[in-house]
Write a structure and sequence with these properties.
Catalytic activity: GTP + H2O = GDP + phosphate + H(+)
Subcellular location: Mitochondrion
Family: Belongs to the TRAFAC class TrmE-Era-EngA-EngB-Septin-like GTPase superfamily. TrmE GTPase family.
Mean pLDDT: 89
Largest sheet: 6 strands, mixed
Shape: flat
Distance between the termini: 32 Å
GO molecular function, one term: hydrolase activity
Cofactor: K(+)
Low-confidence stretches: 1-23
Oligomer: single chain
Number of strands: 12
Number of domains: 3
Strand content: 15-25%
CATH architecture of the largest domain: 3-Layer(aba) Sandwich
Bound molecules: guanosine-5'-triphosphate, potassium ion, magnesium ion
Helix content: 40-55%
Strand order of the largest sheet: 3-4-5-2-1-6
Number of helices: 18
């Protein structure tokens, strides 16, 4: 009521009509970053977007769809100017959410933004204009069929992407490549199922050839292979999305913490000449040639007597077991130069099924006579993993180490633009695993009971549908949109 009075006091009759119009649920939020900035973007979505734009610009006519227009933004109650900025009108369904949307590009001062939010909140006195929940714009876009779940996940990843390779992978997924791949598989299954059902229904009338059945078998088999190999990608999409977990490991005092500090270019870990300095795991996030690396410095591995150091060593071993990549550090001056002996020294350090490893022979500056033999051993490689001499003191060998790291990361994460798109979440691999299992069951059922075999195909298709959200999306929506920011 207060608003109705306020609006009628403020003037135009169309504003009053807005109040009586049946508004559905309209959301608004700041979609740009928070805090002081050059430009802040506030957007709305829902049937109230039109009225909100009219109220704030004080004009009944809207700018042409999807064209920026310069407008004075005013408080609808007092008509006091709040800012002069650009507004855009996106009538549904040609908008991000598929609903009527409006955008206000304002000067990014906190008082401007809060003034306009208050004005919109005032419009919240009308039925149904309210602040958006995190991810609610994207959620609405999903509900209106503007994107599938994998694209929504890609969008979330794109906003969070910190390195180029992550951005490439996320953009590809947001543009629907992964979703289209799963959709294609789902359609293949639909077709195979239709043929199988036709065979079941009509084979007795002799209208359907035996070949139909073998064709269905071949299709299902080929699909099982294709999904199987998509699954066996070494988790490269997941690694790229979450960052490759690399662990710096080695005996005490070889310069592990010095290496961490050198790579992150700040004194993140304590360095001292005392063996057993590091106990807690120290973690930093790095961008190496566009790939994300989560690097952990750990306690020196030895049979410690001090209980606190023992705990540190146990944590170090835990980290080693979970690592995607190990940077094994040894003291260059204290290792045998002969490759086989060097390999044995390394082997005694790492767990049996160790992940890929880079051997770092640190303190190269202390090598007598330049360490020619060791240098040759590193260059030859065999039977060592990729290895480099390094001096954390002088920086010698750092470029080589970075190149080795970049190569390993590229191998682990793959090229996000090459080949078919990678699955990026354990959610995907879980459903794909179930899908493949159902296809394998088809193979067995098929000889005994065609009806049951058909049921397996339906089940396999349901698992694919769960990934894209065409089936049973409700249970996962909260999880997927939980990490989205407000305004997206
Ligand atoms: N000469 C030389 N000294 C180094 C180099 N890197 C590290 N140091 C020294 O070696 C000592 C141990 O370095 P840290 O980085 O603490 O070694 P750490 O492996 O983390 O040691 P713990 O945490 O105790 O296992 C310190 O005195 C460093 O200054 C290097 O490349 N050359
Ligand atoms: K130390
Ligand atoms: Mg240390």
């Amino acid at each position: 009521m207060a608003l109705r009075r306020a609006l009628s006091a403020a003037g135009p009759r169309w504003a009053q009509r807005l109040c009586s119009a049946a508004w559905g649920d309209t959301i608004f939020a700041v979609s740009s970053g928070h805090g002081r900035c050059g430009v802040a973007v506030i957007r709305t979505s829902g049937p109230g977007s039109r009225g909100a734009l009219q109220s704030l610009t004080g004009r009944p006519e809207l700018p042409p769809p999807r064209v920026l227009a310069l407008r004075r933004i005013r408080d609808p109650t007092t008509a006091e100017p709040l800012d002069r900025g650009l507004v855009v009108w996106f009538p549904g369904p040609q908008s991000f959410t598929g609903e009527d949307c409006a955008e206000l590009h304002l000067h990014g001062g906190p008082a401007v933004v809060s003034g306009v939010l208050r004005a919109l909140g005032l419009a919240g006195g009308l039925p149904g204009l309210r602040p958006a929940e995190p991810g609610e714009f994207t959620r609405r876009a999903f509900r209106r069929g503007k994107l599938d779940l994998t694209a929504a996940e890609g969008l979330g990843d794109l906003i969070r992407a910190e390195t180029e390779a992550q951005r490439r992978q996320a953009l590809r997924q947001m543009e629907g490549e992964l979703g289209r791949l799963y959709q294609r598989w789902s359609e293949t299954l639909t077709q195979a199922l239709a043929h199988l059902e036709a065979y079941i229904d009509f084979s007795e009338d002799d209208n359907v050839e035996e070949e139909v059945l073998s064709q269905v078998d071949a299709t299902v088999w080929a699909l099982e292979q294709e999904i199987g190999s998509h699954l066996q990608d070494g988790r490269r999409g997941e690694l790229l999305r979450g960052g490759v977990r690399a662990v710096i490991a080695g005996p005490p005092n070889v310069g592990k913490s010095s290496l961490l500090n050198l790579l992150c270019q700040r004194p993140a870990a304590i360095v001292s000449p005392v063996a057993g300095t590091t106990r807690d795991v120290v973690e930093v996030a790095l961008n190496i040639s566009g790939y994300p690396l989560v690097l952990s410095d750990t306690a020196g591995l030895r049979d410690a007597t001090d209980p606190v150091e023992q705990e540190g060593v146990s944590r170090a071993r835990d980290r080693l077991r979970q690592a995607d990549l190990v940077l094994a550090v040894l003291d260059a001056a204290a290792v045998p130069a002969e490759p086989a002996a060097l390999g044995a020294a390394l082997g005694s350090l790492l767990p049996p099924a160790a992940p890929p490893c880079i051997l770092v022979l640190n303190k190269a500056d202390l090598l007598q006579g330049g360490g020619g033999t060791l240098r040759d051993a590193c260059a030859r490689g065999d039977p060592l993993p990729p290895a480099t001499l390094l001096s954390c003191r002088t920086g010698e060998g750092l470029d080589h180490l970075l190149a080795l790291l970049a190569r390993q990361l590229a191998q682990l994460c793959g090229d996000p633009l090459a080949g078919s798109p990678s699955l990026t979440q354990s959610r995907h691999s879980l459903h794909l695993g179930d899908c493949v299992a159902a296809l394998a069951r088809y193979d067995r059922e098929r000889r005994r009971d065609l009806g049951l075999a058909a049921e397996r195909l339906r089940l396999a298709r349901r698992h694919l549908g769960r990934i894209t959200g065409h089936v049973g999306a409700e249970d996962v929506l909260d999880i997927i949109f939980r990490d989205f920011c407000v305004g997206k």
